[in-house]
UniProtKB/TrEMBL annotation:
UniProt-listed SMART domains: Flavokinase
Source organism (scientific name): Bordetella ansorpii
Top-level taxonomic group: Bacteria
Family of the protein in this entry: Belongs to the ribF family.
Keyword set, alphabetical order: ATP-binding, FAD, Flavoprotein, FMN, Kinase, Multifunctional enzyme, Nucleotide-binding, Nucleotidyltransferase, Transferase
Gene: ribF
Protein name: Riboflavin biosynthesis protein
Length: 321
């Protein structure tokens, strides 16, 4: 039985600190490249009697600097919300995650303070794995050489991992996953992720418009700047019983009926309604049907939903769940 994942919004208190094998990164999507890193951390931790640990950041550092410089268009989209990222890290065998808030204090921290305050004193790092181009500290002043010098002084080993590539030799990266999702290429995204793209969350109450139209939906809030392209998708729903449920879903801002721009994921179960409010569900994206559209009236919207449901049923008739 795997130990439970311990999550810290700040450095662990002194009484809960333990020597660890650590890796550092944003880990958006926890794609196959990330999984290779996490697998090595887990193996080294087991071999050395250490806790496998991850330090990640919220918000993404690029998101922080985009806001600071009033350039929101430079902020990266998000493959995963925090819940899905943490779940994936737990499945990869990580036992401790420190979600370090990326703010002015962290952005202005010197490279030496980053090493001594966070890695040495805060996390008791004994073994560290980072990418070959890892930079840290104010103005990205810290590099691998400085880490290795500090490791000799403080007693931790520093290792680097080169890029992980796909079958065609292309680097696997979060940027590549975002590009695939932005154009609706779910197959390419799955090849890079090693799993289906999905969104998890608690089902919330909506406006009940789908019920009025004859197509009741389960509504999930979506993290800001979701990487997936808005549109209509064939999906399967997990968390409403032992077996997955077939569904058709709309990811977007509901342009026909709303104008405030909030992104929602609305899923209509094809095999009948469920008592889902408040439940934690996982929506796995299987196939993109079409882009999101704004219709002139509700009858046109209803006809489009009916066609989407027919196309989703046809997909499941061929491919199953």
């Amino acid at each position: 039985m795997k130990p439970p994942l311990r999550i810290y919004r700040y450095l662990p208190p002194p009484s809960q600190r333990a020597p660890c094998a650590l890796t550092i990164g944003n880990f958006d999507g926890v794609h196959l490249g990330h999984q290779a890193i996490l697998s090595r951390v887990r193996r080294e931790a087991q071999a050395r009697g250490l806790t496998p640990a991850v330090m990640t950041f919220e918000p993404h550092p690029r998101e922080y600097f985009a806001a600071l410089n009033q350039r929101p268009e430079l902020a990266p989209t998000r493959i995963f919300g925090l819940r899905d990222k943490l779940s994936a890290l737990a499945r990869a065998g990580i036992e401790r995650v420190v979600v370090e808030r990326f703010n002015a204090r962290l952005a202005g921290m010197s490279a030496n303070a980053f090493i001594e305050d966070l890695l040495v004193n805060g996390l008791q790092t004994r073994w560290l794995l980072v990418g070959e181009d890892f930079r840290y500290g104010a103005r990205r002043s810290g590099d691998i050489d400085l880490l290795r010098e500090a490791g000799l002084r403080h007693g931790f080993d520093v290792h680097t991992l080169s890029d992980v590539t796909d079958r065609q030799g292309h680097r696997i990266s979060s940027s590549e996953v975002r590009t695939a999702l932005a154009v609706g290429d779910l197959a390419r995204a799955q090849d890079l992720l090693g799993h289906r793209f999905h969104i998890s969350g608690h089902v919330i109450h909506g406006q009940k418009l789908g019920r009025t139209l004859g197509y009741p939906t389960m509504n999930l809030r979506v993290a800001p700047r979701c990487a997936a392209r808005s549109g209509i998708y064939v999906v399967r729903v997990l968390g409403l019983g032992d077996a997955p449920r077939p569904a058709v879903a709309s990811l977007g801002v509901r342009p026909t009926v709303e104008d405030h721009g909030r992104v929602l994921l609305e899923s209509h179960l094809l095999d009948g309604p469920a008592d889902a409010y408040g439940k934690l569900v996982r929506i796995e994206f299987l196939h993109k049907l079409r882009d999101e559209e704004k219709f002139p009236d509700l009858p046109s919207l209803t006809a489009a939903i009916a066609e989407d449901a027919r196309n989703a049923r046809a997909y499941f008739a061929v491919h199953g769940l």
